[in-house]
Design a protein that fits this description.
19 strands; 0% helix; 46% strand; globular
Length: 258
């Protein structure tokens, strides 16, 4: 972000690639950056790391699913991607041992890998080095679509804090990457109080799979979703809206501020 009183802005080039933002000084730890289009935020800049999770729509509603792996360090990174679908985990070597060169970008197309899926979850982890992982989905094969937010690492208690009052279909994506089935209970925290929505008392997620749950009773409800689970799970929710070709506006489970 530019300092007060200035009009400077970083402009990303209109070609495949990534943008790296660095900061120095006493306030550098507080830096936040995001990408905008037409005055609307389209993606938040992430930080390099070794472990990322995503819970998102599957290939049935997305013609394009692309995972971008960007390495901003001076050494190569090795990345493994675990994929879970609504029919179970995918056992394939296509997305293991991906080498991302120093100061390089690798784009992995996943639509063919998860063909026919209604929900998917990704666990992106490095065995060497660090990367920034970003996921883009579009309902149109050549559409711009939308960048989807990473989700909190699996936990027995999750909170999705930002649910606006837009009307229309809301879909919860849950993933259980472990070896035991998950039983999940869902609560809504709204301005009028906390309550359990219809069907929120017992949601089952088979071990090693992702699940898609339509929350029809929450159309137009403002609030947060709180999930408690018998085993660690991760989650995100889609809401109506977004640019043409987008799978909907996505918001994901987030850890508490420390």
């Amino acid at each position: 972000r530019s300092s007060p009183g200035t009009r400077n802005a970083a402009v990303a080039a209109g070609r495949p690639g990534g943008v790296m933002v660095r900061a120095a000084g006493s306030m550098a730890r507080g830096l936040e950056a995001e990408q905008t289009a037409g005055g609307v935020a389209t993606a938040r800049c992430g930080s390099p790391g070794t472990d990322f999770w995503f819970a998102v729509p599957g290939q049935q509603s997305a013609g394009t699913i692309e995972l971008d792996l960007m390495n901003v360090d001076s050494q190569a990174a090795t990345v493994d991607v675990d994929v879970f679908t609504d029919t179970g985990p995918l056992h394939t070597g296509a997305d293991t041992g991906i080498t991302v060169p120093a100061h390089g970008l690798v784009v992995q197309s996943l639509a063919g890998l998860v063909h026919g899926s209604r929900a998917i979850a990704l666990h992106v982890r490095t065995s060497a080095g660090r990367v920034v992982a970003a996921l883009r989905e579009s309902s149109q094969r050549n559409g711009k679509g939308e960048w989807l937010p990473p989700a909190q690492a699996p936990s027995q208690r999750l909170v999705i804090p930002g649910m606006p009052g837009s009307r229309g279909a809301r879909v919860l994506y849950l993933a259980d990457p472990g070896g035991s089935d998950a039983q999940v209970k869902l609560s809504v925290v709204s301005p009028g109080g906390t309550y359990q929505p219809t069907g929120g008392n017992a949601i089952d997620v088979p071990a090693g799979s992702a699940n898609r749950i339509e929350l029809t009773s929450l159309s137009g409800v403002v609030g947060a979703l709180v999930m408690t689970s018998s085993v660690p799970v991760t989650a995100a929710v889609s809401l109506p809206g977004g640019p043409a070709g987008a799978p909907g506006v996505m918001t994901a489970a987030a850890p508490a501020l420390q």
